[in-house]
Write a structure and sequence with these properties.
alpha/beta
């Protein structure tokens, strides 16, 4: 099984999702959307669109975001399943007629979600780091939410997540080297969150693998 991995930024690594994908027989071909043109979808069985330090409506993404939105629309039209994570989920929503805007407050750290699909998206806890919220596109089904915003939804075979199932201590540390102002705004201690991430790794990987396996059940071999 071959997947197109859209890394929005050089630090948008797939982490636990990448490790679990390898165990489940998925080969990723990574492309950094902010630095290169995304390839045609021909030959890919699925698309995984990762997170980013930006908003989909921000000036940083203006030079390249339309190319990614068009690719996501093409994936939907061709029934190529998309797994969108944080920025990737927001881009999917925007591409399909939803909206993305500033959330009422930052969500950062490990939190539980209210879920209507616990077999697919259990309560968690899941790792979150975002300051935007999604209005779902037409036809989408909400799966999970917090009091702040939607956290997971589906549209046909596509699964979109506001939280970060891929996070590992190494990945989180790399993000923290860029900016920790959201932690300060939320009143969270970055070091304490990193230690919690280390403690939660075994359960986080089990949860990420289960979620990915369920997503892959709807994926069939491409041309």
């Amino acid at each position: 099984m071959r997947g197109l991995l859209i890394k929005q930024h050089r630090l948008s690594d797939p982490g636990l999702i990448g490790a679990c994908a390898a165990e489940l027989g998925v080969e990723f071909l990574p492309h950094v959307a902010s630095e290169e043109t995304l390839p045609p979808l021909h030959g890919f069985d699925l698309v995984v669109a990762m997170g980013a330090p930006w908003s989909v409506y921000g000036p940083e993404v203006e030079p390249w975001i339309e190319g990614e939105l068009n690719l996501l629309r093409e994936a939907v039209n061709r029934d190529v399943p998309v797994l969108g994570i944080c920025f990737g989920a927001q881009a999917f929503a925007q591409a399909l007629g939803g909206e993305v805007r500033k959330a009422g407050r930052v969500e950062v750290g490990w939190s539980e979600v209210q879920t209507d699909a616990p077999d697919l998206v259990p309560r968690g806890p899941w790792f979150m780091w975002h300051s935007d919220e999604i209005t779902l596109p037409p036809g989408a089904t909400l799966l999970a939410h917090t009091e702040v915003c939607p956290q997971a939804f589906t549209l046909g075979p596509h699964l979109l997540l506001q939280f970060h199932p891929e996070v590992s201590p190494e990945l989180l540390e790399s993000w923290m080297t860029q900016d920790v102002s959201d932690f300060e705004e939320a009143g969270r201690d970055p070091k304490a969150v990193l230690e919690e991430t280390k403690r939660r790794q075994p359960e986080a990987k089990r949860r990420a693998r289960s979620l990915l396996a369920r997503f892959l059940k709807g994926v069939t071999a491409g041309p």
